[in-house]
Amino acid sequence: MRTTEPDMEVQPEILQILEAIEDAVILADSDMNVRTITPSMEHLAGISADDARGVDTARIVADRILPEGKAEGEPRERILSLLQNRTGSGGVTVRVSAAGGERWYAFSSRRVRQTGDWIVRFRDVTRREAAEREVRRTSGDLAFLSRAATELAAMPPEADPFSAIGAYLHELAPGSIVIVSAADIEAGTLTPRAFFGIEPFLPDIIETFGEDLVGISLEIPPHIRNIMIHGEIEEVKGGLQEIALGQISQEICLKFEVIAGIGAMYCIPFTWKGEIFGTAVILTRREGGEVNFRAFEVFRSLASIALQRHQAEAELRGSEKTFRALVEKGSEFILIVDDQLKIRFASPPIEQVDGFPPDRLIGKHAFDLIQPEDLPRVKEVVSTLVERPGGSVQFEVRFRGPRGMHVIEAIVTNLLGDPHIRGFVVNAWDITERKRTEEALWRAEREKALILDSTAEMFAYYGTDLKVLWVNRATAAFIGREPEDLIGHRCYEIWHNRTGVCDICPVVLARETRQPQETEIAAPDGRVFFLRGYPVTGETGELVGLIEFAQDITDRKRAEEERARLLHDLEVANHEANLYLDILTHDIRNINCVATLYTDLLMQILKGEPKTYVRKMKGSIDKSTEILENVAMIRKIHQEHAPLKPIDLHGVIVSEQKDFPEAEIRYEGFSRMVWADDLLAEVFHNLIGNAVKFGGPGVVVTISVETLDGSIVVTVADTGSGVPDELKESIFHRFERGRTRVRGEGLGLYICRTLLERYGGRIWVEDRVAGTTEAGAAFRFTLKEVVA
Fold it and tell me: What would the DSSP string read from start to end of 442-481?
């Protein structure tokens, strides 16, 4: 296809380099007209390199890459402004809505110094943006999990962990119904213990079920029990009846599903190492809030650990009571060992420990029952005790039996000298379960610490007296001490080296109000911190502890302050510049008016050479006035942004033709409607005025209009001296002169280019006769036609 556009050919080696770039890239000339695009850009913009060649880069970006309504507003406008103003940029990130979902692109542009070309790049950073969003979501989840772990760990023995777990699950699934049940594996039943989000439907529930749901027991079928042991969160496809383990009629279940507007349902079993403690059911509602599935799995583990620990603590307390009762009633087992360490007597309770019949132990060496690794320590204890007749020693030892290893706590008394005993009396009891419980508690505490130590934010847990009970490693590192060194100190001592509480401390305010509090504080070294204080309450509402969360937001605050300062400075500078410009143009225009009156008077009075000088003076004054008019026009263009409207191109040309009655202007045309505004006439006024002013005597101006590649192309040609090749691009920039070194003040053609770019077109200059500069110039520009 024959075009009038400048040569857009790209060297083969440059094409090879561009094709190797994975990013979507546009190579544009100095006027931001496309020379070529990479395959990735063809795919992104949906246009071939051939079709894109010569098109304005800003238009391709605006229409095809960042279409209005689908691209994020502010970044889109910034990118288009950078392209239209020929400004390089290190990077602007913009979000675009696409059929396959949201995509994120990093835009950059730079000018190639050697050639003047522009490289415009769009890099797909969707994955990076998704990762950053995921980091923010993960931080929120970590804060929630940290708070949940701490508060679950701080629950008093009398608290109901099922209610606490239900409250946290409802926080993760707001708008849903949460039902938490306790499991009794021995009885094979599930008993609902806590309900959340069900209050609006209680009257209907009581009417439907005929009773309060709290306290009812549901039998666990064997296959459901096997599924629960695996501890995996599963979606329940069979509806509420499957959740009710088939023990509530389908009619009633369907009725409740309709009443509550139930959507998807999920079952969360709380298990730990194959032991089932309970379940939670999430009944999402079609009109409910978003469910945070990301944190469910980790919280399920936290809840399982909390239930296991709560049960272990309860069992431990029960075991201790039982132990004391057994000791008081003499139910612990007793051994008597002679001086050769042979068992001479074993009490019957020993059979309960590991199935040892007492009579089979008689005559055995006592050390045969001890774990080999413990023997050196036991031998040392016995050898020491031999030297202490009547003395006793208490220690723990691992005991080997037919059913495995047990931990035995024993009190050994040296009664070798007692004629009735003549041996060592061993009073012993099995503490295996207690040890397992202690180990489980230690592991639970360890897992809690691992979770909270993994966050970079500072986290501390205080008692109601503001003494430190626990801190994570980020807190200790900030203070410069080890976590264990801070335990027992009051918060204001370790943070601020004070002797009393701080006035605006969110932890103190949370203690007083029983509500979460937050604030920002500035440290002496200039850093800024965001602080949150949370009250920790027990089951009955009493305050049991306080949580403090601290985050360093110094960089964010500095960035906000710097941005505000720069915006203020920019507004002040812009205001001052406009003020100075108003003063200058007003005063100079007044001076020019007075000077013009005097020069006109002198022109009438003087003759000869003085009159020639006055005529030149008047020309300079007219030039000054023209400059002021151009400056005013540029300000008007930048300050007024009237919407484009249909304009009669033919009418504009005819009107401007009448403004130059003494010039020979050739034009034959008909009515064509284009998208522009009332300033379109300025383009023709400048182009015709330049041709008449600088074309020389007898200059002929020819105006033609044609349709090319879907656009209206207007040509204003003259028979003047032409424009040298080295100036064909630069004359459209501000303060660049025209065909001679004295032509114009360099603003008229800049105004033309600015207006045409606003209309979505472009302007360039060619030789009127190809290859013959002195035969005159042909200024060409494009406009968008109004399509009926």
Answer: HHHHHHHHHHHHTSSSEEEEE-TTSBEEEE-HHHHHHHTS
